[in-house]
Specification:
This protein is of the alpha/beta class. About 30% of the residues lie in helices and about 15% in strands. It folds into two domains: about 230 residues, Uncharacterised protein PF07075, DUF1343 (Rossmann fold), CATH 3.40.50.12170; about 140 residues, Alpha-Beta Complex (Aspartate Aminotransferase, domain 1), CATH 3.90.1150.140.
Length: about 400
């Protein structure tokens, strides 16, 4: 007997999500009778929040040969940056190969006995979120092995209409790849689903194309908010707990490249930014005077329980998005960084990772020399060129 699905169990009080179940049935039809490997994490769930990895492993007509784990691991128990080691999944008995450590892509030996490699991970819509770059490396490996690559597409939680921020002109590794045959990479807020981004990379930048298939989201449109899709939200990583976090993340993730806390170790990661030397009242007044669209800043005091400034009282701000359609997270993040660098120049330190996150070389010097507004003006030509390139690979209608 096949395992029950959300549709099967609706009579027992479980929530039914017919759109995602329809999409899952498309996946199962393609996978049945095949040996498959699956690149996934805890976000790869069905409408009843059950991992598709478990459904595939229990299907008698499908043979799962391997799982591949990105950053944070297969079942989400690894913190940011932590190496994920190979192991055997206790629930299914299937080997799990890490793609966040010394190995960044599946090996030919791990794909030798598989008929298809499936990708199913919830992205958050920001260039420096690592999962989509793990996806592109897996696509390259699948192309080399001659194995079809299937993307189980999922909605972009910050939307498909807005495209913002500088396309990276330098290769930023797992926070933003750039191919030698391209003048630039992807905008910070790319406004694409994983499937659309896979299609762009495959057709524009890969020297050897993958045999790519995208299992699309039924009846999805570019203007449909994530909250109306009825797709489940599972934290894609330990510090991405809510859709509010995802909304501000494209801007405040920049502070990972500084000695300020970006709110890790609090209940509001990426919504809080601060440090022990920050005068919260001064910073709040300064930022609210900028009248940035769709956001207000509140004075905040917080003590991170881990990560930077553990146990120390930090002064800073909490971002409150008042109009998600008007809010410009990248401009907001650059403005906040500029103000802190100008107000506390001796205490505030930046690291090379800051430039990789921004996709702009020597960002510390550039932002102090030019200011955030002028810097944003400088990337507009690249952004327009990226928009035109992106337009050719969009799947979902307006």
């Amino acid at each position: 007997m096949e395992p029950s699905s959300p549709t099967d169990t609706a009579a027992h009080g479980c929530r039914t999500m017919t759109r995602i179940e329809s999409q899952i049935r498309d996946l199962l039809e393609l996978a049945r009778g095949k040996r498959v490997a699956l690149l996934t994490n805890p976000t790869g769930v069905d409408g009843d929040y059950r991992l598709l990895a478990d459904r595939l492993a229990e299907d008698p007509d499908i043979t799962v040969t391997a799982f591949f784990a990105p950053e944070h691991g297969l079942r989400g128990d690894q913190q940011a940056g932590a190496k994920v080691l190979d192991y055997v999944d206790q629930r299914t008995g299937v080997p799990v190969f890490s793609l966040h450590g010394d190995r960044r892509a599946p090996g030919l030996d791990q794909l030798a006995d598989c008929d298809a490699l499936i990708f199913d991970i919830q992205d958050v819509g920001a260039r420096f979120y690592t999962y989509v770059w793990t996806m592109t490396k897996a696509m390259e490996a699948a192309a080399e092995a001659g194995v079809p690559f299937l993307v189980f597409d999922r909605p972009n939680p910050i939307g498909l209409e807005r495209v913002e921020g500088p396309p990276n002109r330098m290769d930023c590794g797992m926070v933003g790849r750039k191919w030698e045959n391209a003048p630039f990479g992807v905008a910070t807020r790319h406004g694409m689903t994983p499937g659309e981004l896979a299609q762009l990379v495959n057709e524009e930048w890969l020297t050897r194309r993958a045999a790519l298939s995208i299992i699309t989201i039924p009846d999805h449109t570019r203007g449909e908010p994530f909250s109306q899709t009825e797709y489940p939200w599972v934290s894609p990583s330990p510090n991405m707990p809510t859709l509010d976090t995802a909304a501000v993340f494209p801007g405040t993730c920049l502070f990972e490249g500084t000695n300020l806390s970006e709110g890790r170790g609090t209940t509001r990661p990426f919504e809080l930014v601060g440090a022990p030397w920050i005068d919260a009242f001064q910073l709040v007044n300064d930022m609210n005077e900028q009248r940035l669209p769709g956001v207000r800043f509140r004075e905040a005091q917080f003590r991170p329980t881990f990560s930077k400034h553990t146990g120390e009282l930090c002064g800073g701000v909490q971002l409150h998005v008042t109009d998600v359609d008007a809010f410009r997270p990248i401009l907001t993040g650059f403005m906040l960084l500029e103000r802190i660098l100008r107000l506390w120049p001796r205490q505030t330190e930046t690291r090379p990772f800051l430039s990789r996150l921004a996709g702009i070389a020597d960002l510390h010097e550039r932002i102090l020399a030019d200011g955030a507004i002028k810097l944003a003006d400088a990337w507009q030509n690249d952004l327009q060129a990226f928009r035109a390139l992106r337009e050719r690979h969009l799947i979902y209608p307006e």
